Amino acid sequence: MHHLHNWLATAAALLSLAPALSPAAEVVVYSARNEQLIKPLFDAYSAKTSVEVRFITDKEGPLLARLQAEGANTPADMLITVDAGNLWQAGEVGVLAEVDSPVLKASIPAHLRDPANRWFGLSVRARPLVYSTERVKPENLVSYEDLADPAWKGRLCLRTSKKVYNQSLVAMMIARLGEAETSRVVSGWVANLATEPFANDNQVMEAIDAGTCDVGIVNTYYFGRLVKERPGLAVAIAWPNQQGSGVHVNISGAGVTRHAKHPQEARKLLEWLASEEAQGLFAGLNLEYPANPAVTADPRVAAWGTFKADPANVAEAGRLQQQAVMLMDRVVYR
Amino acid sequence: MLTADADLAISHRVAPRPRGQWLLRAGALLLGAITAVPLAVLFGAWLSPQTLVWQHLATTVLPELLRNTFALLVGVGAGTLVLGCGLAWLTARCEFPGRAWLDWALMLPLALPAYVLAFVVQGLFNPSGPVRWVLHSLPGGGSITFEARGTGWVIGILTLAFYPYVYLLARAAFLGIGRGTLEAARLLGLGPWATFFRVVLPMARPAIVAGLALALMETLADFGAVSVFNFDTFTTAIYKAWFGLFNLPAAAQLASLLLLFVALTLVAERRLRGRARFHETARGAPAPRIVLSGWRAGLAAAATGVVVAAGFALPVAQLLAWVATSAATELDVRYWTWLSHTLLLGGSAALVTLSGALLLGLARRQFSDRTTLAAVELSSLGYAIPGSVLAVGVMLSFSGIDNSLDALWRHAGGDHLGPLLGGSIASLLLAYLIRFLAVANGPVSSALECLRPSLIEAARTLGARGLDLIGRVYLPLLRPGLVTAALLVVVEVMKEMPATLLLRPFGWDTLAVRIFEFTSEGDWRRAALPALTLVLASLGPVIWLARRTASGNPSA
Questions:
Q1: Which residues, numbered 215 to 234 in chain A, qualify as contacts with chain B under a Cβ-Cβ cut-off of 8 Å?
Q2: pLDDT digits over A136-161, tens only?
Q3: How far is residue A158's CA from residue B453's CA, in Å, rounded to a whole number?
Q4: What pLDDT shows up at residue B5?
Q5: What residues of B are in contact with residue A34 (Cβ under 8 Å)?
Q6: Given A5, A34, A54, which is nearest B520 (Cβ)?
Q7: For chain A, how far is it from start to end, CA to CA, in angstroms?
Q8: In chain B, % of residues over pLDDT 90
Q9: What is the pLDDT of residues B462-515, one digit of tens each?
Q10: Cβ contacts (< 8 Å) between B232 and chain A: which residues?
Q11: Which residue ranges form the domains of chain A, and what is each CATH number?
């Protein structure tokens, strides 16, 4: 057994030099949030605390599969995703640990975090309507449901149902209206489409600007980015469902992994990311809304006006995602 | 090759197999087994039936996906065949103004990943893009409306991205056809067109089919380009099951079906080709080029020029235009790191993949038993699996080994061991090996076919053995084919995105990873800088590849 031990030690040293070189305090992060949106925060955190943050970016699916496969052997201490559905799924398959933190509970509103405390929203992305300022009166834009009305026939543009943001939107609608009514609404959308669904939100807004359609549904930060690129864009935001459920919101968020090797450091990093100090930067880098209500949004974001957001817990988006995908397939929302 | 086979058989009877040959066979079988593990992991998913997902897919999206995939295969197949063979014939056998540089310029689209070409085309044709702007400034052009989407567009993009495989291999085959063969065809009364269809194409068939197989496997595995067009294919269903329905086993099952389809198609093609082999016995003088003049010359130059423009020049111009607006904020010193990682991974993967292909090629040459053949065939399949799915197969295999080692370590009284293989360069190189063996196999095995067994026997008789034989006889003779294979793999690996994303060690970001950071959020303008850098990095190997094969080396 001693020989085996030696052999394994040699193999370990040869194959993986990283543990020998790593400093005492570090956090390892798997992130589905893009590098350019998280690195500035990690740099600031390292400068402040001298804790090194090592991270790797990829899509949620592969990262989650990797966490599951690595099991107890994972090097990851934290998982960051850009939507609630994948956080919910990570919680379901048991790769996230409960974090009982008074700091996090005080910083992040209850509907933006896991009821079981395994993940916490860090920024809010609203998904309102966008419309042509040339052909639509904003007072005619009432709700997501109203876009199923035949009055919008041939005037609607949508992004593909394969994007998780639309899956979350429809899942939250199922939670609110039930499957049958949601199915009616979504098939109404499909009937009203001016053209086949697009691959991304930018194309939806470009199509509205070009006159292909009059109204669409996009995330606010895409709108912010495109307007920055093309200031003359004849497209504006309208906040739907203000008399009812409120605008659909999603979160990007994070959790500490169940088998974290540095659970205390990971928890401290998570608490810092939710703090007033970091929230402005976290949301501002991507023109999102801070999840911490004590922090005000970037002035460019605040300029779009205030709105009532859907207060339902975003965990529902994960629980009902599969049902939403199947519903959209059935009504041929591509 | 019938002569060569006979040659081989005789040599075996006369001289017993040299010692050490079993090592070759064992190596090939081991390699076959290693490449089979991640694929077996995919098939293993059938152990947990996913009836609900299958019922759902079968009753909703699957029929349309199959139709789309079929249309894509037919369209891209026909497109790459016509472009690849037609252009190869023009540049290899004809002479027209500009031929000398169009010859290698036609290889340039290989430097552009399909996913980059796709988003660049969207940028060129989108409502605020340059093409509309030009159209609208023309008299009467303002009324022209069209959407750059749909089956035709996707087929066009993938054809432009993948025709160089057919072009490269077909051109080498056309160049290898000697004067004697063509003169014989003429003497037997065949005109130029009949010669092309009845003599040249059948002789070049193995090369053309090899190129076509690469193009079609890429088409099946593609997700990046089709998703830019929101065009649903079978691969889309794999990702829908995985990301949308949170069902990785169902995704693996779908991927394994894709694999099965490719395997059956390859076997069927081999059966159809049967034992017919065409062999250029004496190459003699190269055949003279057909000199085109007048409108024919103009047409040939225009056709090739348009392909180079559409597949390379215009997309690069759009990338440059985007870079001009984004470089000021995007350019930073880390580009040197990303570039060096990209080149380093490309180079190491080429080395590993080439060794693998050589091992398999040599083994197939020496052993014709079913097991060896199966190992060789198996090793080509990885090319048809969508990158992320293959990456997960590799990741699951390595995590399994890691976790067992960790358990052993703890059993031996150790503390936490951590992942050794997972997230290591080794796992990334293995994924590249599995994915790109098919690319290296073609040039390597055609180079090996040109090695006459009698030559090796002669060297043996003269006392060359083992490494000496390899170093002094095999390698110099195989060099052209090996260099071609290496360059192809370097270019492919540099463009590879999903496996690099999932399996790269911490800090090992590449240019493709950088492109992902932007395209995943539809930010094409900012993706232009890493994309252009990647194109420039691939340009070296691609031009090298194009120029050296343009010189007419038949084994290239």
A1: 222, 225, 229-230
A2: 999 999 999 999 999 999 999 999 99
A3: 63
A4: 42
A5: 517-518, 520-521
A6: A34
A7: 58
A8: 44
A9: 888 777 887 888 888 888 889 989 999 999 999 999 899 988 998 899 999 999
A10: 334
A11: 24-124+251-296 (3.40.190.10), 126-248+314-330 (3.40.190.10)
- Which residues in chain A have their CB less than 8 angstroms from residue B152's CB? none
Contact B473, B459 (CB under 8 A): yes
CB contact under 8 A, A209 and B416: no
Domains detected in chain B: 21-56+331-408+416-520 (1.10.3720.10), 61-322 (1.10.3720.10)
Interhelix angle B114-125/B151-176, rounded to 10 degrees, is 130
In chain B, the residue whose alpha carbon lies closest to the alpha carbon of A167 is: B244
**Higher pLDDT among residues A287 and B9, named by residue:** A287
DSSP 3-state assignment of A49?
helix
Reference B516, options A32, A166, A76; nearest CA is: A32
Query: What are the residue ranges in chain A where pLDDT is below 70?
Result: 1-24
Is the Cβ–Cβ distance between B406 and A70 less than 8 Å?
A: no
- Order of strands, sheet of A249-256, starting from the edge strand that comes earlier in the sequence: A52-57, A26-31, A78-81, A249-256, A120-126, A289-290
The C-alpha of A305 sits at a distance from chain B's nearest C-alpha, in angstroms, of 24
Q: Where are the alpha helices (DSSP H) in chain A?
A: 2-15, 18-21, 35-49, 60-70, 84-92, 102-107, 164-177, 179-192, 201-210, 220-229, 263-273, 276-284, 299-302, 315-319, 321-330
Query: Nearest CB to B403: which of A73, A89, A197?
Result: A73
Residues of B whose CB is below 8 A from A12: 417-418, 420
pTM for the whole thing? 0.90
Q: Which residue has the tokens 């998570």?
A: A270
Report the pLDDT averaged over residues B21-42: 87
- pLDDT recorded at residue A251: 97
The confidence band for B7, taking pLDDT boundaries of 50, 70 and 90, is: very low
Q: Which of residues 120-179 of A touch B (CB under 8 A)?
A: 160, 162, 164, 167
Quick: pLDDT tens for A36-88. Answer: 999 999 999 999 999 999 999 999 999 999 999 999 999 999 999 999 999 99
Is B416 near chain A, with CB under 8 Å?
Answer: yes
Q: Which residue of A has its CA nearest to B426?
A: A15
Higher pLDDT: B362 or B270? It is B362
Q: How far apart are CA A70 and CA B519, in angstroms?
A: 28
Instruction: Find the mean pLDDT for residues B261-287.
Output: 70
CB contact under 8 A, A65 and B525: no
pLDDT for res A170:
98
Tell me the longest C-alpha to C-alpha distance in chain B.
83
Chain A nearest-CA distance from B45, in A, is 14
Distances (CA, A) of B44 to A197, A244, B52, B252, B291: 35, 48, 18, 8, 58
* Mean pLDDT confidence for B87-101: 92
Yes or no: say if A255 and A90 are a contact pair by the CB < 8 Å rule: yes
What pLDDT does residue B551 have? 59
Per-residue pLDDT, B554:
40
CB nearest to A16's CB, from B128, B403, B424: B424
The amino acid at residue A74 is T
Band (B139; pLDDT cuts 50, 70, 90): confident
Contacts of B172 (CB under 8 A, 6+ apart): B207, B549, B553, B554, B555, B556
Q: Please indicate if any CB of chain B lies within 8 Å of the CB of A70.
A: yes
